[in-house]
Amino acid sequence: MMNSVELSSQRRTVVGGLPAQEQLFTSMNNVQNRSISGQVVLAVRAGRGYTLSYLGEKLCPPAVSTVISGALTNLRLTPYIR
Length: 82
Prior knowledge:
The chain is mainly beta. It has one helix at about 60-75; strands at about 1-15, 20-30, 35-45, 50-55. The chain has a single domain (about 1-75), classed as Mog1/PsbP, alpha/beta/alpha sandwich (Protein Transport Mog1p, Chain A, 3-Layer(aba) Sandwich). It is built from one helix and four strands, in the order ββββα. It is elongated, with a radius of gyration of 14 Å.
C-alpha cells in the first residue's frame, strides 16, 4: 500500500508506434514507512488500455530513471490475434 503519492513529472511518449503517456511519482510505503518511486506508461491500442510500470523502494537518480523509461517505452508491439 502507498500513501502520499506525488506526481513528479508527466510527459507524452511513444510505445511501439502508439501514443502514450509516462508518469513518474514518489510515495511512501505504508507497511515499511519507506520512500518509493515509480514510473508508469499508459498506452491505448484498439480500445484497450495497457499499463507498463516500474516500482522501486528507493528514489531513482535521473540517470536510472532514463534507463527505466527506455526499457518501458522501447517495446515492439505485435498484431493482436484472436
